[in-house]
Design goal:
Helix content: 25-40%
Number of helices: 16
Strand content: 15-25%
Shape: globular
Bound molecules: flavin-adenine dinucleotide
Number of strands: 19
Structural class: alpha+beta
Largest sheet: 8 strands, antiparallel
Amino acid sequence: VGTRSWWGWGDEEAHLGAEERDGLAALLAERFPGHALSEVRPVDPVAVAPPPALEVPDGLDVATSVDAADRARHARGNAFVDVVRAVEGSLGRWPEAVLRPADADEVERVLDWAAGAGVAVVPYGGGSSVVGGVTPDPDGPPVVSLDLERLAGVLEVDEVSRHARVAAGTYGPAVNEGLAPHGLTFRHFPQSWEFSTLGGWVVTRAGGHFATGPTHVDDLVAAVSAVTPSGRWESRRLPGSGAGPSPDRLLLGSEGTLGIVTDAWVRVQERPRFRGTATVSFPDLPTGLRGLRALAQSGLEPANARLLDPTEAALNGAGDGTAAVLALGFESADHALGPWLDRALELCRDHAGSVTAGPRLTEGDRTGTAEGGAAAWRASFLRAPYLRDALVLLGMVVETFETAITWDRVDGFVADVVAATTAAATEALGSCAVSVRVTHAYPDGCAPYVTVIAPGRPGERVAQWEAVKAAASEAILAGGGTITHHHAVGRTHVPWYERQVPAPFRAALGAAKAVLDPAGVCNPGVLGLGAAGGAP
Ligand SMILES: Cc1cc2nc3c(=O)[nH]c(=O)nc-3n(C[C@H](O)[C@H](O)[C@H](O)COP(=O)(O)OP(=O)(O)OC[C@H]3O[C@@H](n4cnc5c(N)ncnc54)[C@H](O)[C@@H]3O)c2cc1C
């Protein structure tokens, strides 16, 4: 077990070493000549911690910490701006204490106390939010962070129905460790998997890295248990149901504003052992998108179908920057995948794709150890956030944002969003690199994911980021996309979320908040639902 970083991603032991940082600095100097890279180091949280402005009563009998680094880590999530603010020591509002309940009864006691004492409660899973979801309301009442890490573990497994009941504070690796003795896996791997939790995934409608099929956690949730300030909430696990609006669907995406999820029944699967992979190059992104659409509409359901534009392919060492690259992968617990892969490659060739690696077919055992290339790919995917933090320390601005759009509009949409982002980044930052990958593909559309990297001005990076973020978000909304495909709404996306959804729906959500959380205790401000009952 490593030492959790209070200011950046993951474990301190896994952060980039001096040699890797020097290599990165040399690459940046080559890509952005003329920009002096100023390396910053994180402040000492003890030196900047405001004294707690609230005493949690002993009688509450819930584990409580007021340690400075613990409070600092819980004052923010893991967006680029969070990391910048943390290293610069401008953390804004701090939680007065971090509470770690051991069970649903303790959660209930905290919510009761908070309602009576006028305290806001910010639920905290892994703290990997990139949208201000765990950031205290800057203007509201005093805040405590409710870290759910002690609600952990796989609690029950129904091998017959392939359901598992998992406690909300269980981190990704522990979910699958608990399922492994049953030969099962929870086939849901967001990039933040190592440092995010089952409860966090459920309430943010997280997206895993598989490109097709049940991409979001939504379709993998069979039932949810929660504690709301107005009472306990337990839905019935069913394979499907047409009984009115779904209680689970109200909690999916609720982002801690309606109550605290304590555990959920999720759909699990046998561990895959057959794999098939290949790499295909396309002349450019629009051509690649046509190939990807053909795949997404074929019913083949590849596990991986990640399309990188030429810039992104070059940045990832997957190409020389002259072609778009599609990483294609299939997996199954049940059958060999030769025919699926063959047909997929045929579709790619029909759309001007040329196979540059593979096809490669492997068969492992049911322990999941013989994953080959898939394991290597996943390891580098999980390592990427550490690279982001190293870029932050080198004074860069690094933003990633994601959206989704139907196929009929995709080409113009991507071009417009990239143009608006590039224009804003150039104006705010001088030079920049903007690249696109497509992470998920559906029969009716896809999810483009944009990365912006630029050298920032010391002390001005938050304002520079805000300018780029606003321009990109406006372009997304104007083009008919969603403000988020899987990163959630939090606080950051509220202005665009409010314009994206129908007004009567906003009113209904505000009314649900007023009923479930009448004192406005739960994560006020997130989703635009305010402290006083959340009237939109
Ligand atoms: C490097 C990186 C990569 C990422 N990759 C992905 C990705 O591939 N796919 C994706 O979907 N997202 C991704 N994210 C965003 C983030 O990881 C997800 O939103 C994730 O679901 C959050 O889980 P968490 O446990 O960290 O929740 P937190 O960040 O702790 O909380 C998220 C929100 O949920 C609330 N909350 C948390 N737990 C509970 C609970 N039990 N009950 C009620 N409310 C709760 C919080 O108050 C907050 O509003 C990424 C983030 C980073 C930093």
